[in-house]
């Protein structure tokens, strides 16, 4: 490899107004919600209808809390439990980074269950429409990871023209795995979910789209983990797998189970909500 790319050293701070510091990672979350909200409002109205547009607006607060609390607690429990056990106040130092998608997913699932229970909505049917827009946040979040110069890839085994040197971790050219994840977990998965939700026959089977998302994400993440450098405090697990791949296994199995369950029941012929 003769001319590897050099990580541009982008500033993780988007802008600052007095004491207020706004980072690209925070903007990624905000932009994701701005883009996803109107799309989700349209999706819940596709037949068979699962909720009102107002219900989607009301769910936004639940979703934000689920993502933030679940993502942070997931990182604490899955990736650095011993550190945070010794430094419990660091749990609240979110500006130092540290979010887990798997934890965030669990948080959103809990938020969905609570919200649909309180509103008398069908949990799986409502979740089916919401998960379609989740890859938007995944794509933007991975782009923010790249801007932050974090979650870099493994050293390349052979010459690839897009290999990149991340000065913070050493002189070896590495895979820009953040961008791989943005394309697979984000863009590719979004295309798959939009194609699936456009099929009335699939929308009529509560739980199928949720299962497809879980299985699709698990496959994309497990694949990208082949190029992503494992966390220093964990490294490789038994058999050379990573923590990310291990957490994807139950997600993939749950996805298969949901899709099978959806096709074991009759397709819905009427709306889940009254006009």
Straight-line distance between termini: 62 Å
Net shape: globular
Query: In total, how many beta strands?
Result: 5
Radius of gyration: 20 Å
Main β-sheet, spatial strand arrangement: 1-4-5
Largest sheet: 3 strands, mixed
Residue fraction in strands = 5-15%
Task: State the helix count.
Answer: 10
SSE topology:
Blueprint (H helix, E strand, L loop, with lengths): L4 E2 L6 E5 L2 E4 H20 L9 H26 L2 H6 L14 H19 L3 H9 L2 H15 L15 E2 L7 E2 L2 H21 L2 H4 L4 H17 L18 H21 L12
Helix pairs in contact: 1-2, 1-6, 2-4, 5-9, 6-7, 7-9, 9-10
Give short descriptive properties of this protein.
three-stranded mixed beta sheet; two-stranded antiparallel ribbon; mainly alpha; globular; 275 residues; 57% helix
Write up what this structure looks like:
The protein has 275 residues and is mostly helical. It is built from 10 helices and 5 strands; from the N terminus they run E-E-E-H-H-H-H-H-H-E-E-H-H-H-H. The chain has helices at residues 24-43, 53-78, 81-86, 101-119, 123-131, 134-148, 177-197, 200-203, 208-224, 243-263; strands at residues 5-6, 13-17, 20-23, 164-165, 173-174. The strands form 2 sheets. The protein has a 3-stranded mixed beta sheet, with no helix packed on it. It has a two-stranded antiparallel sheet with strand order 2-3. A hairpin with a 7-residue loop joins strand 4 and strand 5. The longest helix has 26 residues, at 53-78. The protein is globular, with a radius of gyration of 20 Å. The model has no long low-confidence stretch (mean pLDDT 90).
């Amino acid at each position: 490899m003769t001319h590897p790319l050099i990580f541009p050293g982008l500033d993780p701070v988007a802008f600052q107004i007095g004491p207020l510091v706004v980072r690209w990672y925070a903007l990624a979350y905000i932009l994701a919600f701005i883009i996803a909200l109107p799309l989700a409002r349209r999706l819940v109205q596709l037949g068979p209808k699962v909720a009102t547009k107002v219900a989607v607006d009301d769910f936004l607060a639940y979703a934000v809390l689920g993502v933030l609390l679940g993502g942070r607690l997931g990182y604490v429990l899955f990736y650095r439990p011993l550190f945070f056990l010794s430094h419990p106040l660091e749990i609240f130092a979110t500006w130092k980074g540290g979010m887990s998608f798997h934890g965030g997913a669990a948080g959103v699932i809990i938020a969905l269950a609570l919200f649909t229970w309180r509103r008398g909505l069908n949990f799986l049917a409502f979740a089916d429409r919401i998960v379609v827009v989740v890859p938007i946040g995944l794509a933007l979040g991975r782009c923010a990871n790249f801007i932050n110069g974090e979650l870099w890839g493994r050293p390349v085994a052979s010459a690839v023209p897009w290999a990149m040197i991340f000065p913070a971790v050493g002189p070896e050219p590495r895979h820009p795995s953040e961008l791989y994840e943005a394309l697979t977990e984000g863009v590719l998965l979004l295309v798959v979910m939009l194609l699936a939700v456009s099929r009335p026959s699939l929308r009529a089977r509560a739980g199928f789209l949720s299962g497809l998302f879980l299985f699709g994400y698990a496959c994309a993440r497990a694949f990208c983990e082949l190029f992503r450098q494992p966390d220093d405090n964990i490294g490789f697990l038994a058999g050379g797998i990573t923590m990310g791949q291990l957490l994807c296994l139950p997600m993939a199995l749950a996805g298969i189970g949901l899709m099978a369950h959806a096709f074991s029941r009759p397709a819905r012929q009427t709306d889940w909500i009254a006009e």
